[in-house]
Design goal:
The chain is mainly alpha-helical. The protein has helices spanning 2-12, 18-27, 31-40, 47-59, 63-76, 81-97, 103-120, 125-137, 146-159, 161-174, 178-191, 196-208, 212-225, 231-242, 247-258, 269-280. The protein has a domain at 1-78: Serine Threonine Protein Phosphatase 5, Tetratricopeptide repeat (Alpha Horseshoe).
């Protein structure tokens, strides 16, 4: 069936450029087919083609290859913050999967690229958010730190007020200031009522705090914001499993998610399968 769908898509896009065809495959989360099209393409290699190849390799978990592609994209356009930020992401994931001796060096490279991306374009929302997450999560000897995260939060305020309150919520949670964190998450959802992710952030937090009834209400609100969003299935299942309740429903939601059409912005099917294993292991 997968081969048929890919062949059908390729035939419909015969008149389109290879990059257009590859982008459509990527949007369908068919990352290997994306790379296959780009590899066979007779088109000259440009920043956008290297970028798409880098994203596809990243999604496949081949972070070393992803780094190679994004290095080429960055060489093609050194001033583009998006390419540099993705280099940071790829190095960060490589650090997470490396042995303990190599990981610190890879993590430092990730920080350097995140910082470079923000320096290139302080208005690059994703770059600023990624650097903030690094500062918040990494230890001081790897260049992280709460003070750095707090300082960067002011830049987030300029770029996206809702994201700013989400950032403050993360800081508050690190400090175990849970009432403050809840208030910041509510403010973020209030400022961006049409962004399903902001609503899900609040629903998941309330579940972790044992406020199950309100959490369910907020999950229903998320479904009304975007009825087609598959992320809601994953988020609800994750909340149930983390709080050890409604496990049969969690299994059903995850199985539905695994067989649903997804986008690259959704948690991967592998993420869903790993979550499902936590429930079915017994």
């Amino acid at each position: 069936m997968r081969v048929f769908i890919v062949s059908l898509l390729l035939s419909f896009c015969a008149a389109a450029s290879d990059l257009d065809v590859a982008q459509k495959l990527y949007d369908r989360t068919d990352y290997q087919a994306t790379l296959d099209v780009l590899k066979k393409s007779a088109e000259s290699k440009t920043g956008p083609t290297w970028e798409l190849a880098g994203k596809a390799a990243y999604q496949l978990g081949d972070f070393k290859k992803s780094i190679e592609f994004f290095e080429k994209a960055s060489q093609a356009n050194p001033s583009k913050s998006t390419y540099v930020n993705w280099l940071g992401r790829a190095w960060g994931r490589r650090a997470e999967t490396a042995n303990p001796f190599m990981a610190p060096g890879y993590a430092s490279k990730a920080r350097q690229y995140f910082e470079q991306a923000v320096a290139l374009n302080p208005r690059d929302v994703e770059a600023v958010n990624d650097l903030f997450s690094y500062y918040l999560e990494a230890p001081g000897f790897l260049g992280g730190g709460m003070d750095k995260a707090m300082n960067l939060a002011e830049q987030i305020r300029t770029n996206d007020p809702a994201e700013y309150h989400f950032a403050l919520a993360q800081i508050a949670q690190r400090r175990k200031q849970y009432d403050l964190a809840e208030g910041q998450l509510r403010k973020a959802a209030e400022l961006a009522p049409k962004q399903v992710g902001r609503v899900l952030d609040l629903a998941k937090f309330l579940a972790r705090r044992g406020k199950y009834g309100e959490s369910e209400t907020i999950f229903q609100q998320a479904a009304s914001v975007d009825p087609s969003s598959k992320r809601i299935l994953f988020a609800r299942a994750e909340a149930y499993i983390e709080t050890n309740r409604n496990l049969d429903l969690a299994k059903k939601l995850l199985n539905e998610y695994i067989h649903a059409p997804l986008s690259p912005d959704d948690p991967s099917r592998d993420d869903a399968r790993r979550l499902l294993k936590r429930v079915t292991a017994d």
